[in-house]
Amino acid sequence: MATKKRYLVPGDYMADPSVHVWDGKLYIYPSHDWESGIPENDNGDHFNMKDYHVFSLNGDDPMTSEVIDHGKVLDVEDIPWAGRQLWDCDVARKDGKYYMYFPLKDRNDIFRLGVAISDSPVGPFVPQPDPVRGSYSIDPAILEEDGKYYMYFGGLWGGQLQRYKDNKALESAYLPSGDEVAVPARVVRLSDDMLGFAEEPKPVVVVDEEGKPLTADNPYRFFEASWMHKYNGKYYFTYSTGDTHYLCYAIGDNPYGPFTYKGVILTPVVGWTTHHSIVEFGGKWWLFHHDSVPSGGRTWLRSLKVCELTYNEDGTIQTIEGIDE
Ligand code: FUB
Fold it and tell me: Whose CA is nearest to atom 4 of ligand 1?
């Protein structure tokens, strides 16, 4: 039986949802797609987003509750170091302040990660003057645990992760192929002031059941869109496989991994990208994601969706079909 799904913002194009529950209320931090007229290419130039909105649910059932648009909370024009392309963001709360982490190309067309701060979960967010020192690539996602904050990040192709090794820029980008080990996402603990890295970013290694890292030719290897949640004391690293269009998961015993590959959460959707977050709310688990059905398949015009996520008794996740028959 097809999983019931709901489009959350039918009046606009929103994608890459990061979702958090604070004080019993659910907040959604998506990318804001629009028709900029930039032709589609493998570099993702057509994802030319220029602002963020925040949404919240007026109720505790994502399938039926009213979705409130809190309006524009950050504009690329207000970011002092901005070049172009505001991609997937995430927000963390610490000591009553809210920290939005966002990827943006600087004026040299290099993706960096920025921070913007607010006193409210619904913004507005005020950007810091410079990007996070030592940051690179895209798709930051934050895990909070025991007062520590971990950022997962990175994405291939247009996300530029293939341009870095050991946190240094390479002379030329290198994308492994065949049975070479796949490019990993990165994880880093944030500094106490939430504005920087407290350590060097480390690779997020995804291994098979024999403990071998997934290889570049494995259709289920990491590409972009990291997310981290905990279930029954285990750490679930979830991600998009990009050019093979799956959302997958791998399970570990601590925030740094390694993580053992377990399976597919969502099969390919209509549209090239697939991106998500997972959250417990109202006594159930939910998969927030996007597809391009409402825009007729235009992959740069994506729409926010939600559906319930189901765990089996052994902690594995039931696969959801991305396309409903
Ligand atoms: O929205 C732009 C990019 O597309 C995101 O950063 C990626 O994860 C993909 O969804």
Answer: 273
